[in-house]
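Re: the pair you flagged

First of the two:
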Amino acid sequence: MATFGRMEFLDRDRSCGMANYVKHYLTQVLRLCVIAICSAIFGAGIGLVQGEIVARGPDRMYQVTFGEGAAMIGASVAFFLGPILLYALNRKMLFEQFCYIAVSTFLAGCLVGWFCSRAPNGPGWASMFLTPIAAIFFAVIFSREGRSSTAAKPRP
């Protein structure tokens, strides 16, 4: 260690190790923020479309208001659910798998909302509880599928 007066400075090897640790930590935090924001954007879109499908009111203003509320709920739920699913699946997810999960969740949420709202005064609002469950279900399915397909490929 090199000294300067009464202060001791770490040698170069230790300071580089600390810099790599900080860089790794900041990269993980940035990745978490990006996944949370992207998930919230997807959740808002899914919630808006699902709210437009479910709302069957006497006027357009009721439908738009319901859709906006559903978009906010979808964004709020997805903001937390996306990073939780990513880290629960050990951060091993390809962009293609993320797209499959998002599209499958969108289709499942819209179909469930449409089926639930078909009856007069039907429980279409209940689809907001089933859509996050569908997201978890599809995340588990596509993460297993990705692990088996990457394990089967020989590395050069």
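Second of the two:
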Amino acid sequence: MSIEHPEAARATTSRRAFLTRAAAGGALVTAASALPLDRLVQAAGAASTTPDLDDPTYAAIATPYEMAAVQAYQAAISSGAFTGQDAQTMSGLLSNHQTVVDTLTAYLPTTAAAPLPDPGLQKTVTKTITKSSPAKTTLATLMDLESTLAATHLAGLGQLTEFSLARTLAQVLSVENEQSALLARMLDKTIESQTPTSVDTTAALSLTQN
């Protein structure tokens, strides 16, 4: 997954380039929208109704969520539950989230403290991803995580006041929805179950800066 950094994003955005790593990791599965996911919503809360967010503020809010996703995939890989192509897929999805982290971090003010993974989200996902967790339990947790992050970015997209990051988020939420659908297929769920007819942001994490 290749995402343009702030300077390049103001010039042109290539969705094809963004999706390259996702395709390599097997993540290009069509999905339309994020689903309401009670398990993560209960832990992290619903999205804020704050009407406006500038790029640095959104980056400060969203980067810890994406960092928690990186740690979730690291835990999944370390668990030893995935081998062969499945292990490669996990590594590809981890790389995608790390790319999002790197991209969002570039929007932070130079004076900002180094971001850390969101503790609430991190605890929610990693407590079900352990060396003793069945692969299907881990896959279900990661599927929920992808859908929740996509819903969060969709909610943020409607609150951003600047164009460059908005274009990036449109790419990110699209790929994270696709990754959720891929994980659903690994769980033998149908594509139809992952493609509802309406877009839902009720699963979005809080967009209020601490």
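The mean pLDDT is 80.

-B.
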